[in-house]
Amino acid sequence: MAQRLALQRLLSLPTRGPLASHGRAFGTSAGRRSTFNVQDGSDFQDRVVNSPKPVVVDFHAQWCGPCKILGPRLEKLVAKLEGKVLMAKVDIDDHTDLAIEYEVSAVPTVLAMKNGDVVDKFVGIKDEDQLEAFLKKLIGA
Predict the structure, then answer these.
(1) Which CATH superfamily is domain 33-137 in?
(2) Which entry of 28, 49, 56, 67 is 20 to 30 Å from 121 by CA?
(3) Per-residue pLDDT reduced to its tens digit, 26-43
């Protein structure tokens, strides 16, 4: 039990480097403006479902190790697309209702949404080549 608690604490500690950006901090660079944390159901409706641009939705959790690897990797690739696609980050512990609504049964789960509809999805971690192909398919490149 003590080991599990220590592991949970370790996984929730902020880290240096690209993993630190997976938390709730907002950056000010142009690439960061493409990525946002969903605040509530209304925010999700406004910024994801009603978005004129395609949106990648990253359902994650603070305690999820693979999420801490995938999140920054996906953010970097979204930033490279310079506003052609947006990235919404949804913490499943804070927004259980959205996770249930979109049938998220494991994290990380990533949805590709266009015009309010889910057009593609994957569960688990992917390498950069697979993520690039996922994003290119979403934006039609």
Answers:
(1) Glutaredoxin (3.40.30.10)
(2) 28
(3) 444 444 479 999 999 999
